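Page 42, continued from yesterday. The earlier attempt failed because a stray header line got pasted into the input along with the sequence. Redoing it now with the clean sequence only.
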Amino acid sequence: MLQTFYYDPFRALAPRARVRRREAETAQWRPAVDIIETEAQYQLVLDLPGIDPQSIDVTEEKHVLTISAERSARELAEGETLTRSERKIGRYQRQFTLPEDVEVETISARSVNGELIVTLQRKQPVETQRKITIE
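This time it went through. Structure tokens are written below.
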């Protein structure tokens, strides 16, 4: 028996849109990080556009710096359908082992135009050589 098939291009897109949304919801995202080093400090610059600075956690424990944030899915209004989603969502966490010359008490972080800038001050070198007088 011969079956007639009618092609509907929009019907073909519908299942893929659901699959893309599911992939976007479960995929890990990893923002880009730049590390800038000077004689006085290190700076970590992370791209976190669209993330509320209040939802970013920066902690240090045993010379390990942990940065975590969460990006939520956009809420769709009634009648809206997500046709394509390329932005990654979910929880993000990254850890950095700090060099020994970092003063952990002075670590600071600020958010500017979608970038998180973490500043790590370096310890000033201590004079290790000294003259010992002979009595």
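Notes: Helices lie at 9-26.
Reminder to self: strip header lines before submitting.
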